[in-house]
Design a protein that fits this description.
Blueprint lengths: L30 H4 L5 H4 L3 H8 L6 H5 L10 H11 L12 H21 L35 E5 L2 E5 L11
Antiparallel strand pairs: 1-2
Helix pairs in contact: 3-6, 5-6
Amino acid sequence: MLDSGEVIHFRDPRMFGELQPAASAKLAELPAVKKLGRDPLVDGLDWRQLKEAIGTTKLDLKVALMDQTRLAGLGNIHAAEALFRARLHPGRKAKSLSDAEWKALAKAIHQSLKFGLSEQESDEIQYVEEPGSENPFLIYGRAGTPCRRCKTLVKSYTQGGRTTHFCPQCQSKKRKP
């Protein structure tokens, strides 16, 4: 219970979270918070900042996007959605992107996060994988169904321990000129 009498409830059905109580004035001093990379929603994010954060890594692009020490706030869903919107293959190496591709990816990250926030209307998060829930996403969770853009079958594979969804036609692994 907080000093105000309010109670915080922590629900973590997917077991990804961690609760670490701290006074708000000391929050920025927590080691876990200090390690976080730039947060697009809080700090802003342009293509140059994105390139600086993940552009030199040899990691696959999607894995690099989900590295919270490089860029905070992008998880599996929004990394996949941003890559689809930017027409970039999740297995591309981050260091292989052109400036035009970095620009498209930065814009797509903002679009994906904005969409995700607009979809989240209730206090209770409903995951795509839960029975009876609708899938509002463009690519995530759509393996084996036609791509919404080109009708090619969406594929999936495991990347960094997570399932990656992509369209082999719209998200070619070849660099665009």
